[in-house]
Amino acid sequence: MEMRGYNPAGTRSCVQAIEILLRALGVADEELPATFEEQVGCVRRSWPAAPGGANAC
Questions:
Q1: Contact (Cβ atoms closer than 8 angstroms) between residue 32 and residue 7
Q2: Are 28 and 49 in contact (CB under 8 A)?
Q3: Mind listing the pLDDT tens digit for each residue in 8-47?
Q4: Of 3, 8, 12, 24, which is the most exposed, with the fewest CB atoms less than 10 Å away?
Q5: What sign does the dihedral 8-9-13-14 (CA atoms) show?
């Protein structure tokens, strides 16, 4: 997963980064939450070590 965190060409915004992370955790595009705050909650629920496991959005 390349997030361009250190790249002279530019970095990704927090919104872009969290969408990349959610996709890497297995969340389908059509299931991505609409707002950044909802996406953060989804990451917390989807993190593999979290109760409920991955894909729990």
A1: no
A2: no
A3: 667 778 888 899 888 888 889 898 999 999 999 888 887 7
A4: 8
A5: negative
